[in-house]
Protein: Phosphotriesterase-related protein
Amino acid sequence: MTGVGGDPSAAVPTYRGSVDAADLGWTLTHEHLFVLFPELDREHPHPEWDPDAAVASAVRGLEELFDLGVRTVVDLTVPGLGRSAELVGRVARRVRVNIVAATGWYTDDVLPPYFRTHGPGRLVGGPDPLVEILRRDVVDGIGETGVRAGVLKAVTDAPGLTPDVVRVMEAAATVHHETGVPVTTHSNPALRNGLDQARFFLERGVPASHLVIGHSGDSTDLDYVLELVDTGATLGMDRFGMSHTGDDTTRIAMVAELVRRGYASQLVLSHDSAYFSRITPPSWRRTNAPHWTPDHLSRRVVPTLRDQGVDDAAIETMMIANPRRLLTAAPVGAVR
Structure:
């Protein structure tokens, strides 16, 4: 079983600068502030998108989260989902919650054409720009913001391990080894492909202590989830309130069962929510997924877990100790 805790004296990068790991507190490990599509947004803006109003909404929401006890939010919006460090930075300067940035590339199939001509053995040649981008985001900061990413993200879904998906995953593994920054994923539990992700990263020496298989909480297959736990990786039970991908009653029961079996040290809880997403805009969410909000865990899920016998020690492990361990960089070059 993966150890918990992490070095409380270690520094974790956030939008407001480095924070002692001991001060991360209650952490939501898989959220989004704004999911955008710049090519559409520039010339075909969404009728519900107003950047100033969106920033104000995020500020209100994060301040409310702070009052509920949340201290850190990991924003897993990466290139491919319209990451805007400038917009998130506007929010971060006005809230008490720590916001951790992520890097990677969000694709479950193919990369943009630029990447097909750049890189070793390709038409233009040169170093792999994916590695260069991820490394720069982690080491130097995103764009001109100076905000350093604290998480690396990769995606697999129905298309499987396509050549471009593998390229993103290889880049994430490379930059992990150079920096110790954790790797987190988007998986499709219905396809059981979290096992492929775990195998891929563990074979490349990413330590299980710094690997999260995302969206594992959508699975209703206990045997599959237990296979994932056996890899040593942390499972992202991270879509609470997302009613179109699963039922919270089932998600809560799965978490309670895993805790009962002694696996609290390998679970993190979150929502995969957003204050604005072009994919599922606010009006759609209000009608179709009204509890898919970043306060849902605090207000409803955690109290229900307590009612099902999950004690405060297990909740603190999932919400505080495990995120602190994950966000504290691993020793460079560490292996499982």
Summary: The first helix runs from residue 38 to 43. The chain has one domain: 11-327.
